[in-house]
UniProtKB/TrEMBL annotation:
Protein name stated in the entry: Helix-turn-helix domain-containing protein
Superkingdom of the source species: Bacteria
Limits of the Helix-turn-helix domain: 5-53
Phylogenetic lineage: Bacteria, Bacillati, Bacillota, Bacilli, Bacillales
One Pfam family from the record: HTH_17
NCBIfam families reported in the protein's UniProt record: excise
Amino acid sequence: MTDRMTAQQTADYLGVCLDTVYRMARKKEIPHYRIRRNVFFSKQSIDNWIKEQEQDNYKNEPQVSSF
């Protein structure tokens, strides 16, 4: 079993449209690699990226004091 996903498989995995995946890759907002003109995504890298996004969002939430 391969860890490699196409852009369409990545879009399905993330629940977003294909254009969003290509746009994010073009802006280097999501981990990817190219083989010639083809764009691929590592499932492990995507999973790690999701965890980082979750942690960053948690860190940036305003802290509510519980007095």
